[in-house]
Amino acid sequence: MPEMLEVSMVHSLAGELAGGRMGCARPFRAPHHSASMAALVGGGSRPRPGEVALAHKGVLFLDEFPEFAAQVLDSLRQPMETGETVIARANHRITYPSRFQLVAAMNPCWCGHAGEPGYACRQGPNCAERYQARVSGPLLDRIDLQIQVPAVTVVDLTLPPPKEGSSDVRKRVAAARQRQAKRFEALGLKHVRTNAECSGSVIEETAGAEAEAMALLRKAAENFALSARGYHRTLRVARTLADLEGEATVTRNHVAEALSYRGETERKKAAA
To answer: How many CB atoms lie within 10 A of CB 265?
Structure first.
């Protein structure tokens, strides 16, 4: 109920509360890549919450990620870090709750086929590098899972469905979230329910990582030049992977998998 009230209050400010009734589903927002700064983070002469705040407690999906204006994308950095959007103007200052899950999708290059076997990019060998550079490093540092998805083939379409369906995955995720909520409740952190919400010091205290796991993380932090934020985010992902498996401790395998999600650069270095 408290979450429903939070979400409904934000949507009411934006005039999007249908019939004046509280919603019972988490929001899903998918703005077009031509969205302006005000549309995404809010503002205007009569301040209104933007897409970031309207995605509070839900999902913000940004398709064609590099096609958004660079300034618009970088405006996501503060909400992703603090869970709040602050709009400061000469005569007012407004804070909107903005605790959302960012899901972004992008092509590997302008042509959309970089890396495919037998394909020569029309823009040259540096097409993918230039295109992906449109997303700033500090913003990428705040994205925990960066996964390359190959193009779907006809063979993929004819394969039988996986043994573990969406409902099974949902049960595992719900169980993992319940473990996390109990862990933080035991520490007296009533407003923290997931690993993503806790501070760096708390995740270090609650990770329960093995010595080998921490040694690997420290070595990776040096070799990959991880920022302090990247270090703690990797540890959070490793702790979450352990929670999904129902494990009490974070092992070396959990840390290795979490590191593999840090981006293509880290994966290349790890394979070297």
So the answer is: 12
H/E segment holding residue 93: strand 93-97
Domain boundary among 125, 140, 158: 158
Question: At 168, is the secondary structure helix, strand, or coil?
Answer: helix
Q: Compute the average pLDDT of residues 56-62.
A: 95
Measure CA 28 to chain center: 14
Do 38 and 139 lie in one domain? The reply is yes
| Same-domain check for residues 153 and 199 | no
Residues 226-247 have a mean pLDDT of 95
Q: What's this model's pTM, rounded to 2 decimal places?
A: 0.87
Give the mean pLDDT of 64-72: 95
What angle do helix axes 252-260 and 264-271 make, rounded to 10 degrees? Answer: 130
pLDDT at residue 142, as a whole number: 93
CA distance 51 to 48: 10
135-144 confidence digits (pLDDT tens): 999 999 999 9
Residues 6 or more apart whose Cβ sits within 8 Å of residue 105: 61, 62, 63, 64, 65
In degrees and rounded to multiples of 5, residue 134 shows phi and psi of: -70, -20
